[in-house]
Design brief:
0% strand; 98 residues; mainly alpha
Length: 98
C-alpha cells in the first residue's frame, strides 16, 4: 500500500521542452478548429448549390461566427477571414440572384 499512496512528483523540464509540449497541444487544438471551419464552409457551399435562401443565410451566419472565433483565438489572421467572408458572401448573393 505504501507504493500506491506515494504522491506524484512534478517533473522539472527545460523551458524549451515545455514550449514544445505547449506548442504541440495548441497545434492540435488549432488543427481541430480549422477542420470545423472547413466543414462549415463546405456545408455552406452545398447549400448554395441546392438549398433555400433561409438555409443559406443560416449556414453563412454559422461560418461568420466560426471565423470570428478563429480571429479571437488567433487561428486565422484578420485579412484572411475578411477575404474568405467576402468571397462566400458573393457566392451566396450570386446564388440568390440566379
Amino acid at each position: 500500500m505504501a507504493k500506491e499512496e506515494a504522491k506524484k512528483v512534478k517533473v522539472k523540464r527545460p523551458t524549451a521542452l515545455k514550449r514544445d509540449i505547449q506548442n504541440e497541444k495548441k497545434r492540435a487544438i488549432n488543427h481541430s478548429f480549422k477542420a470545423t471551419v472547413r466543414t462549415a464552409v463546405r456545408k455552406l457551399e452545398s447549400q448554395v448549390k441546392a438549398g433555400s435562401a433561409e438555409s443559406r443565410q443560416e449556414a453563412l451566419s454559422q461560418v461568420y461566427s466560426l471565423m470570428d472565433q478563429a480571429i479571437a483565438k488567433g487561428v486565422y489572421k484578420k485579412n484572411k477571414v475578411a477575404r474568405s467572408k467576402a468571397r462566400l458572401t458573393a457566392k451566396v448573393i450570386a446564388a440568390s440572384n440566379a
